[in-house]
Amino acid sequence: MPTKGSVRSWLLLLILCIFGRTSIPISAPSETVLQDDAERISDWPQFRGRNVDGIVNEKVFEQDRPVILDLNWKVKLGSGYSGISIKKDLAVTMFDDGEFNVIAGFNAVTGQELWRFPVSPKYQGHDGSFDGPLSTPLIYNNHTIALGPSGRLFALNNLDGTLVWSTDLVKDHGAVPPRYGFATSPIVEEGTIVLQIGSKNGAIAGFDPETGKRRWITGNDFVDYQNAVPIARNGDRFVLSAGAEAIMGINPSSGDVLWRYDHGGGGSRGIWCMVPVPAGPDHVFLAYKNDSSALIELDGRDTNVTGRQVWEERTIRNSYNVAVYHEGYLYAYSSRFLTCVDMATGKAMWKSRQPGDGFLILVDGHLVILTKEGSL
Fold first, then answer.
1. pTM assigned to the model
2. SS3 of 85, please?
3. Which CA distances in Å does 66 have to 23, 56, 63, 367?
4. Closest by alpha carbon to 161, among 219, 234, 104, 90?
5. Is 9 helix (H, G, I), strand (E, B) or coil?
6. Burial of residue 168 (number of CB atoms within 10 Å: 0-12, 13-18, 19+)
7. Which residues of the chain, if any, have pLDDT below 50?
8. What's the rounded Cα separation, in Å, for the pair 98 and 78?
C-alpha cells in the first residue's frame, strides 16, 4: 500500500505557497467567489489538477526573477492519503481527526477553517497503511464531491459544508470494497462525475453531480486503487478507465465503451494503483508492473481504436508516484530516483538521487517536488 499519507499534513500548506506567492492572482474571500464557476490559473479542483495530468501550463515563473515562497499560514491536519483540491478561495481535503474520517473546507487565502463534515467512523489503517481517507475530493460548480474509504460518495454545499446528497457504492451499486479502502478519486467530464467503483455490475460509473443519481455503469474489469483520466484524440474527449486487465475508452456522457486494450500488467506497484498518463497525441504511458512500465500507441477512431505497445522498459518502476509528461519526456520516480525518460525510446536520459523520494507536478515547465521528508 502506498505510504504517501505520511506527507499529507504538509500538502495543503505547500500547494498554497506555490499558488499563492507567484504571479497567480488570488481574489478576496467572499461568498460570491465561491459560487462563481469561472476558472482561474490557480484552480486545482480535482485529483492531479484541472486536467487530471499533474500539470499547470500557465505562465508562473518569470525569467531571471527568483520565486520567493513565504509562509502565509499553517494548519495541522490528521492522518490520511487525501490530496487537496482548490477552487477560487476554497481548499478542501479529507483526513482522520482521531474519531472520524472528515472532510474540511478552508479559506485558501487565510487558512481559516470554513466548515467540517464527518464522513464516516475512523478508518483504521492496517498492514502498514495509515489511518484515514484515501480519495481526493472534487470541487465542481457549487458542490464538493468526495468518496469516503468505506464507499460513501457524497456532495456538500461549498459555502457551508452541508450535505446535498449521498449514495453508498457498496449497498446501492454493488461495489466490492478494496482491501485498503476506496481510494479512487471522482473526476468530472462532460458534466458527469466519473468514478471507478469496481462493481459486479461494472468497473466504472457516471453520476449526476446535482443529485448523485447514477447515469450509467459499464466495463468488465477489476478495480482496486486505479483512477480514471480524461483524454483527447482527434478532437474528441473521452475517459480512460484503468483496470486490472485493461484500459478502456469510455464516452462520459453515455457510458458507452468505445474500445478496450488488454495491457497484461500486474503487481501492487503496477495495476493496483495505476493511473494512465496521456503522453502526447495517441500515446498513453502505463506504470503497469512492479518492475517495468510501457508506452501504448492508440490508432483509429470511434469504436475502431486499437492499441499497440511501443516499448516496455525498467526505467520507471517500483514506485507509487504518477508520472508527468512534458515535450517528449516523462518525469517520474523510479524507486527513489528522480528520472527523465525519452518517450520515443523508453530510455532514461538522466537519474538523480536528489532531492529525495517524493511526489511531483509540472508547473510552467518546471518540476515542483514535495519530498516525503517534507521539503519543497
1. 0.90
2. strand
3. 12, 18, 8, 15
4. 104
5. helix
6. middle
7. 1-38
8. 7
Contact present, 356 and 336 (Cβ < 8 Å) = yes
* Sequence-separated (6 or more) residues with CB below 8 Å from residue 329: 340, 341, 342, 343, 349
> What SS3 state is found at 337?
strand
Cell of 77: 491536519
Torsion angle defined by CA atoms of residues 188, 193, 197 and 199, in that order, rounded to the nearest 10 degrees: -140
Phi-psi region of 202 (alpha: psi -120 to 50; beta: other; left: phi over 0): left
How far apart CA 264 and CA 269 sit, in angstroms, is 14
Q: Summarize pLDDT for 141-168 with one digit per residue, the tens.
A: 999 999 999 999 999 999 999 999 999 9
What was the pLDDT predicted at 302? 80
Neighbours of 362 (CB within 10 A): 18
DSSP code for 83: -
CA distances (Å), origin 137, targets 46, 145, 154, 156, 288: 6, 6, 10, 11, 25
The CA distance from 375 to 180, in Å, is: 27
